[in-house]
Amino acid sequence: MSDSLVIGCDDGCDLVLAGDGYVSRKHARLHLDDGLVWVEDLGSSNGTLLRIRRSIVVEPGDELLIGATVLRLEKSER
User: Fold this and answer.
1) Residue 78 pLDDT
2) 9: which of 22, 23, 26, 38 fits an S-S bond (Cβ 3.0–4.6 Å)?
3) Predicted TM-score of the model (pTM)
4) How many Cα atoms sit within 13 Å of 47 on the Cβ side?
5) With b meaning 16 or more CB within 10 Å and e meaning fewer, what string describes 3-15?
């Protein structure tokens, strides 16, 4: 992952979740900061996880609910 990854249904997003009517155009952003992965809701209509409205740290194995889509974070062994 680069420093930032935007998730949504807009074609300009880094991860496009097409076909999910509950996903906003620019729904959430994952970003790295000092070795930690943060998730931030970008003002989506339906929220991210438990309707978070501020950035929180996520860890490998955590699952994100974005619209009706569940994403599981995995650590890459590089």
Assistant:
1) 67
2) 23
3) 0.87
4) 6
5) eebbbbbeeebee
